[in-house]
């Protein structure tokens, strides 16, 4: 771990290797991430996205759950504004991540803070916070965060590309679109660790069952999502005051 009292050469060596530690830390979870990305690539091709659109999508929206949800909405023909609003709602959690990272990144140059904001993911954030807790003397947490984030993002984007191009040898009649809800459920399930999250998921699911068939322009999905977020906030507040 980096220490201000270390000799300059040793500090530079540690600064170089810290991103590698971050990337190595996330290696085990790639076993679960890569299959999801492959399926997402298949679906992008089947829903009519071009290779350029698929690549832009992968590098502009670095968030697995949002990508799965927005691809589903693209396939359903939802309006552009509904798709954007859904992605923003799902990704609101990154605002909370940012607040908790301010003390760790406030002394870093702007380009490094921008890079961290761009490549961070749920998984790299979780591993970085674990590193902060387990190794409080680590003076290069930003390096660890960048390494962990790139260790998740680069394989994810590569697997999407492989899935997209492999889709050319899969018959168009093969209905892979049913896998989108399965992937979305697999991404969501590990997050259901307390009553507010479980309650939010149940309310959103019930709302989607009722509202998606009843509302036009795929607005039922976004409305159900808003109900779920509201329920989660109310349950969280109730649990905090109990």
What does this entry look like structurally?
With 242 residues, the protein is mainly α. It contains 12 helices and no strands. The chain folds into 2 domains: 8-176, no CATH class; 192-242. Helix 11 runs antiparallel to helix 12. The longest helix has 26 residues, at 141-166. The protein starts with 7 loop residues before the first helix and ends with a helix.
What are the key terms here?
mainly alpha, 0% strand, 242 residues, 12 helices
Task: Give me a quick take on this structure.
The chain has twelve helices and no strands. It has helices at 8-25, 30-46, 51-60, 64-75, 80-90, 93-105, 110-119, 122-134, 141-166, 179-188, 195-214, 219-241.
Number of helices: 12
| Beta strands, count | 0
- What composes the largest sheet? none
Amount of helix? over 70%
Q: Which helices and strands, and how do they pair?
A:
Blueprint: H1 8-25, H2 30-46, H3 51-60, H4 64-75, H5 80-90, H6 93-105, H7 110-119, H8 122-134, H9 141-166, H10 179-188, H11 195-214, H12 219-241
Helix pairs in contact: 1-9, 2-4, 2-9, 3-9, 4-5, 4-10, 5-12, 7-9, 8-9, 11-12
